[in-house]
Write a structure and sequence with these properties.
Layout (H helix, E strand, L loop, with lengths): L37 H15 L10 E10 L5 E8 L4 H13 L15 E8 L2 E6 L1
Antiparallel strand pairs: 1-2, 1-3, 3-4
């Protein structure tokens, strides 16, 4: 071998000095929002009950459908409250609006909830009603 040709041998995997991985403190990930988790279903049903306690269904005449939406901040305050669909029945709209404004705050939401939109749908037909939350 001349000076220009040197024998190069590759080190084995056990001989390679790779930098040691330091134990990085793990940052806990925020829980993933699942609108159908038992905890979220329980929370939304309790919220629905609190809102419904302010809903004067007996004051509504006729029929109609409407929908509202809102979010809840980490302290339980209902924010961004609005109609996503208004009814042609003004009495229904007024009653739903009063209900929504009568519950400005609820209990703080579960840790998995991060301000996602909550929707409520109202169907009224001459005293019969259906109220859903999702």
């Amino acid at each position: 071998m001349n000076k220009a040709q040197k024998s190069v041998t590759k080190p084995s995997a056990s001989e390679v000095n790779l930098p040691k991985q330091e134990n990085q403190p793990s940052v806990p990930l925020a829980p993933v929002y699942n609108p159908n988790s038992p905890e979220m279903l329980r929370y939304k049903n309790n919220l629905r009950a609190a809102l419904f306690s302010k809903f004067a269904v007996g004051s509504i005449q006729g029929a109609g459908e409407c929908s509202i939406q809102f979010s809840v901040d980490k302290t339980g305050k209902l924010i961004n409250r609005k109609f996503s669909k208004e009814s042609s029945n003004k009495g229904l709209n007024d009653t739903v609006y009063y209900m929504l404004m009568s519950v400005p705050r609820f209990s703080p939401p579960p840790d998995e909830y991060h301000g996602e939109i909550i929707r409520m749908n109202f169907k009224i037909d001459n005293g019969n009603y259906e109220i859903t939350i999702n």
